[in-house]
TrEMBL record:
The keyword Secreted does not apply. It comes from Halorubrum vacuolatum. Its cofactor is Zn(2+). Keywords: Metal-binding, Oxidoreductase, Zinc. This is Threonine 3-dehydrogenase. Residues 24-144 form the Alcohol dehydrogenase-like N-terminal domain. Residues 191-297 form the Alcohol dehydrogenase-like C-terminal domain. GO terms for molecular function: adenyl nucleotide binding; anion binding; oxidoreductase activity, acting on the CH-OH group of donors, NAD or NADP as acceptor; zinc ion binding. Transmembrane segments: none annotated. GO terms for biological process: protein tetramerization; small molecule metabolic process. Belongs to the zinc-containing alcohol dehydrogenase family.
Length: 367
C-alpha cells in the first residue's frame, strides 16, 4: 500500500509499505479521507508545539523514514481480529479517542482521560496518511448514516469540542464569548448554544468566519474595528460574560494584562465566571494569579479524548449524532479537498496559511 513517509522536518515522500494485518483486538481500516490538523502541520515544519519531542525522536531515530500524523480521518472497517465484537466489517469509523494502557491508577479507577501511558494515533503509532491502518477498538466510534465524508473526516475536533463544552459547565441562559472563530472556536460556539447558552459572541479578525458565525446564530464581533471586550461588556450591562472560551492559542505573552486573546478573555469574563482554555499556547506565558483570585475566576483546561455522559452515550458518540441530526454544520469549514496522498505538501501549506488560500479549516486529502 502507499503511505506518507517522513524523512525529516519538512521532508516527506510517498512510499510503498507493507499493508498491516489486524491482531485479535484490532480492525483493519480502509482510509476514505484524512484531515490534517494545524498541530500536525506545524510539527512537520519543525515548530516546537505539542508532541514536538516525540516527533523529533521518531524522525531522528529512523534511518529510513518514519510514519507520522493522520489522527483525523474517516474510513471503513474491512477486516477485524478474532476478539473484536463491537465493530463489524462495513462500519464507517473515526478515531476521537486515544489508546490507554488499562493498568495505571487512572485507568483502573475509571478516569482513563488521565492515563499516564497513552498511545496517540499518528504520533506513537502510524496514523491515516496511508491507504490502510490498523487500530484497536477503544479509540474508534461509528459514523452514523447520513454524515457526509467531509464532515466525517472532521469529526475528531468536534468530539474534543463537545468535551470542552461539558467541562465548561454552561448553565441555561449564560452569555458566552468565543475568542477565535476557527474550527474549534466555531464548534464550541455552536455547541454552547446547543448546551443552553443565551448569547454567544464570536470574536475574530477574518470576514468569512464572522459571516459563518452570524449565519449559525452567533453574535459576530470584528476585532479589527471594535474593542471586543468593551463591546461584550456593553451588551451585558457592564457585567461581562459568564464563560469566555480562548480558542486562538499560538504565541501570547500575558494572560491577564494587554490584548492577547487570553488576556481579553480574562477582561471579558465576569467575576465568578469561567475561562475555558481551548487554544494551545506556545512558549511561556505570564499571568498574575492574584488577578484570577480577586475575580474568583475558574481557569479550566478541558480534558482530552472521550468521556462518558450517560450509560448510553459518550462525548464522541454524541458529537457524531449532532452532525447526523444537522445540529452542528462542521462541513461549513471544509473548503479544500485534495486528491491523493501526493497532495500532502499542498495540504500542509493550505492548513498553515488559510488566509492566503481562502480556507476556513484544514485541507482534507481524499484517498
Amino acid at each position: 500500500m502507499q503511505a506518507v513517509v517522513i524523512d525529516g522536518f519538512g521532508s516527506a515522500r510517498i512510499s510503498d509499505v507493507e499493508r498491516p494485518t489486524p491482531n485479535r483486538g484490532e480492525v483493519l481500516i480502509r482510509v476514505e479521507r484524512v484531515q490534517l490538523s494545524v498541530t500536525e502541520c506545524s510539527l512537520y515544519r519543525g515548530m516546537e508545539v505539542a508532541h514536538y519531542d516525540a516527533v523529533a525522536e521518531a524522525i531522528n531515530g529512523a534511518a529510513d523514514g518514519t510514519r507520522l500524523f493522520g489522527h483525523e480521518f474517516v474510513g471503513e472497517v474491512i477486516d477485524r481480529g478474532a476478539a473484536v465484537e463491537s465493530l463489524a466489517v462495513g462500519d464507517r469509523v473515526y478515531a476521537p479517542g486515544k489508546i490507554h494502557c488499562g493498568t495505571c491508577s487512572y485507568c483502573r479507577s475509571g478516569h482513563a482521560n488521565g492515563c499516564v501511558d497513552t498511545v496517540a494515533i499518528g504520533y506513537d503509532r502510524p496514523g491515516a496518511l496511508a491507504e490502510y491502518l490498523t487500530l484497536p477498538v477503544e479509540p474508534l466510534r461509528r459514523v452514523p448514516e447520513g454524515v457526509s465524508a467531509p464532515a466525517a473526516a472532521a469529526l475528531q475536533p468536534l468530539a474534543s469540542s463537545v468535551l470542552c463544552m461539558v467541562d465548561a459547565d454552561i448553565d441555561p441562559g449564560d452569555d458566552v464569548a468565543v475568542l477565535g472563530a476557527g474550527v474549534m472556536g466555531f464548534q464550541c460556539g455552536v455547541l454552547a448554544r446547543r448546551f443552553g447558552a443565551d448569547r454567544v459572541f464570536a470574536v475574530d479578525v477574518r470576514d468569512r468566519p464572522l459571516e459563518v458565525a452570524a449565519e449559525c446564530g452567533l453574535v459576530p464581533i470584528d476585532a479589527r474595528t471594535t474593542d471586543p471586550v468593551a463591546a461584550m461588556r456593553d451588551r451585558t450591562d457592564g457585567l461581562g460574560v459568564d464563560v469566555a472560551i480562548e480558542a486562538v492559542g499560538g504565541d501570547q505573552s500575558h494572560g491577564t494584562v494587554g490584548d492577547d486573546p487570553l488576556a481579553q478573555a480574562y477582561r471579558a469574563v465576569r467575576g465568578g465566571g469561567t475561562i475555558l482554555q481551548v487554544g494551545h499556547i506556545t512558549g511561556d506565558l505570564s499571568v498574575r494569579p492574584r488577578s484570577f483570585r480577586s475575580k474568583s475566576i475558574d481557569w479550566v483546561n478541558p480534558r482530552k479524548g472521550v468521556a462518558d455522559l450517560t450509560p448510553r452515550t459518550d462525548t464522541a458518540t454524541l458529537a457524531a449524532r449532532l452532525v447526523a441530526d444537522g445540529d452542528v454544520p462542521i462541513d461549513r469549514y471544509v473548503t479544500h479537498e485534495l486528491d491523493g496522498l501526493d497532495a500532502f505538501e499542498r495540504a500542509v501549506e493550505i492548513t498553515l496559511a488559510k488566509d492566503e488560500h481562502d480556507a476556513l479549516g484544514p485541507a482534507q486529502i481524499v484517498l
